[in-house]
Amino acid sequence: MSKQVVLDENGHRKFGMRDCLAYAAGDLGCNMSFALKSTMSIFWTQFMGMDLWYALLLIVVQVWDAINDPLIGSIIDADNRTYKRNKFLTYIWAGSIGLIVGGACCFLPFPAAPVWAKMIIFIAGYVVWDAFYTVANVPYGSLLSLISNDVKDRASLSAWRSVGSIFGNMLPMVILPFIIYDGDNNLIGERVFIAALIMGALGFICFQFMIRNTDIRVEQNVTLNEEQPKFNVFEAIGNFMKNRAAIGATIAAMGMFIGMQGAATAVTVIFQSYFKNVQISGVVQLFAMIPIVVFTPLARNMVAKFGKKELATFGSICSIVAGLALFITFPENTGLDLIIYIICQLIFSLGLGIYSTVSWAMMGDAIDYNEWKTGKREEGTVYSLHSFFRKLAQGVGPALVLVIMVALGYVGENEGNQVWEVAVRMRYLVAGTYLFSAVLQFIGLGVVYNLDKKTLTEMNTALGRE
Question: Whole-prediction pTM value?
Answer without folding.
Answer: 0.69
